[in-house]
Amino acid sequence: MLKDTLVKRLTLLVLLLAVLYALFLYLGGKPQLSRESLNALSVVPSEKTYRLSFDRPVRRVEVFVEQAGQRKELFRADMSEPSREVVFSLRPKEMSLREGKARLVLKASSGFLQGRSFVIETLVDFTPPVLRVVAYTPSPSVGGSFALKVRSEEGAQVSLTYGGRRYALYPIGEGYYAGLFPVRIEEPLHSAKVEATDRAGNTSHHLLSLKVKQVKFAQDDIKLEEPLIERVIYPLLGQEGKGLGPVEAFKRVNEVWRARDVKRLEEIATKSGPKVLWEGAFSQLPNSKVLAGYGELRHYFYRGQKVSESRHMGFDFASVERAPVPASNSGVVVFAGDLGVYGNTVIIDHGMGLMSLYGHLSEIGVKKGQFVKKGEQIGWTGVSGLALGDHLHFGILLQGYEVNPKEWLDPKWVKTHITQVLQAR
Ligand SMILES: [Zn+2]
Q1: Element (H, E) at 157
Q2: 285 DSSP assignment
């Protein structure tokens, strides 16, 4: 009897311990690695920063690579503070690994008996992608445009870094990539860097040297008279103009609104598609005169004192009042509506980051998303926005920056500086 009870009690105790141990494992749990982290480990390039995230804080992480029956330690960390994220940089190329298939073993532990191993099939790839500059516009102008065509691997990410900005090149098939870029007036730099990154994360780069041609832009002094501010500025500002003096009101539109609208152009530019929709040169508003050119620096005076300035970033074409405006080239309407200083505006995307802008319209005749052929009517000229008389503000945008339309209106320039670069092999 007594012996029976003892066996029963012992069995119960063992069961209880087993349940407690299971509960302990369940509650404490073993760390799980996120899917993104597993993906990041599926390739091992010559160097890479890994960011591993776990579903719970981990105390220790070890990473080994197994190749040809050998195991090497790649990384080990013992955290004083448990963390859900572990970041480390590796230079596996310097660890004498061989290119090809390998197996990674990652051990992560969040505490006593709470470790887990992950086995990841991986590919060691140290070979940087091929990168050949096929052609580019060697001597663009300040405020002008240049084209670039390179060849790399299919599936690579190819970019151009120029003046602190990084632009993606568009894949155009067979491993070719191309793009069109502005030489910003405020940043006419002579060198740019092309970079290609393959799927594994290996990169190749090439420096481009540009002989940027200087351009002398016109200067213009403009007198601000009260009747003009009453007629143009206050109606434009509406409620926003309440309580503002004439100079403040003018500065609000010419500086605050302009900066905001220029930013909006950059946002709109991100909607450009990879397909080239334009053909040949762009065309000027029919039967029009050029009222103002590109790059003109305007100084505004009020009662003899300079109060503001702005640079004119397009061409002003004047024809008759409410003249019909045709599309200067073929493309897709990406914007049709009010755009602050530009007034009623249509923006057409011609592909590869190239767009044309039609401002100060009295009426818009197209809708966003609509495809328009060169010559098709898109609206009528007017005085909407910051305009003193009926005219068309015509802008050419590259990656959201208004470049000199003069180049794009010239068939010979378009052929020698753009088309030939894009067609080169
Ligand atoms: Zn203008």
Answers
A1: strand 157-162
A2: P
The angle subtended at Cα 252 by Cα 250 and Cα 256, nearest 5°, is 135
CA distance 147 to 353: 11
Q: Which of 280, 293, 389 is nearest to 328 (CA)?
A: 280
Using the mean position of ligand 1's atoms as its centre, give its distance from the Cα of residue 214 in Å: 22
Q: What is the pLDDT of residues 236-270, one digit of tens each?
A: 999 999 999 999 999 999 999 999 999 999 999 99
Distance 387 CA to ligand 1 centre (A): 8
In this predicted structure, the answer to whether residue 17 has a pLDDT above a threshold of 90 is no
Strand partners, 401: 398
CA of 302 to the centre of ligand 1 (A): 21
* Ligand 1 centroid to residue 294 C-alpha, Å: 8
What are the distances in angstroms from CA 106 to CA 42, 58, 157, 274?
12, 13, 29, 40
Say if residues 362 and 384 touch (Cβ distance below 8 Å): yes
**How many A from CA of 310 to the centre of ligand 1?**
11
CB-count exposure of residue 83 (10 Å: 0-12, 13-18, 19+)? middle
- Report which residue type is found at 109: S
- Whole-angstrom CA distances from 287 to 193, 343, 375, 388, 410 are 42, 22, 14, 20, 17
